[in-house]
Amino acid sequence: MEFWIQHELAILRWLHILAMVYWLGGEWGVFQTSYKVVNPRLSFEERMRHMDTAYRIDILARTGIITLLPLGLHMGYLWNVHPLGGGWLVAMWIVWAAWMGVTYAAFMTRGKPVWKTLNFIEDCTRYLLIPTLIITAITSFMGMGPFSAGEGEGWYAAKVLTYGLALIIGVILRWVMHEWQDKFRILAAGPDAAVEARLNRSIAIGRGVAYVYWILIALTCFFASVKPF
């Protein structure tokens, strides 16, 4: 316990770096695997194997994305850029544990009927979280809190804002992966040119927004590391 008290911030920073690595690295892995998933020249079985690989890589990215939120808020409290400590921190980590439970349950049940329900719950968490992050970041810049945004502190609200914007892109990419499940059920019955065309259109959109995603992730890292304002 004494070790934790002495090194709490350093340990949280280390975990934060790991979470960012898994987020960025995982998204790159899914991006590359997607080329094989939508390649009609490959056999259906091989494409399914690549899709399974994409989901196995993606779970690490999702773990990083979800874990960054409590880590960032916990460190923010230690940096005195927001007042949400004590019971707020405990509640936040409990919510994180529940969220992780839903995320991994969805991962373990992919392809089964319950998967859609679990994914819907996961999607809903983002529909609630994204506007909350963006609105609180904006109100903080307006001097209304909950985050401090004075001289030398504005980087934190900026980081929250770019993180929230990145989650919007993440939702779009989730929709693309959701579509894989639906379309490949149809392809299991045999080749379908219309389905292949739809897959190509959706993956083209996904690859386009992925570049915006990486820029936002890089900005989030920049604000957290450099603290420019």
TrEMBL record:
<feature type="transmembrane region" description="Helical">
    <location>
        <begin position="155"/>
        <end position="176"/>
    </location>
</feature>
<keyword id="KW-0472">Membrane</keyword>
<protein>
    <submittedName>
        <fullName>Uncharacterized protein</fullName>
    </submittedName>
</protein>
<feature type="transmembrane region" description="Helical">
    <location>
        <begin position="128"/>
        <end position="149"/>
    </location>
</feature>
<feature type="transmembrane region" description="Helical">
    <location>
        <begin position="59"/>
        <end position="79"/>
    </location>
</feature>
<keyword id="KW-0812">Transmembrane</keyword>
<keyword id="KW-1133">Transmembrane helix</keyword>
<feature type="transmembrane region" description="Helical">
    <location>
        <begin position="85"/>
        <end position="107"/>
    </location>
</feature>
<feature type="transmembrane region" description="Helical">
    <location>
        <begin position="208"/>
        <end position="226"/>
    </location>
</feature>
<feature type="transmembrane region" description="Helical">
    <location>
        <begin position="20"/>
        <end position="38"/>
    </location>
</feature>
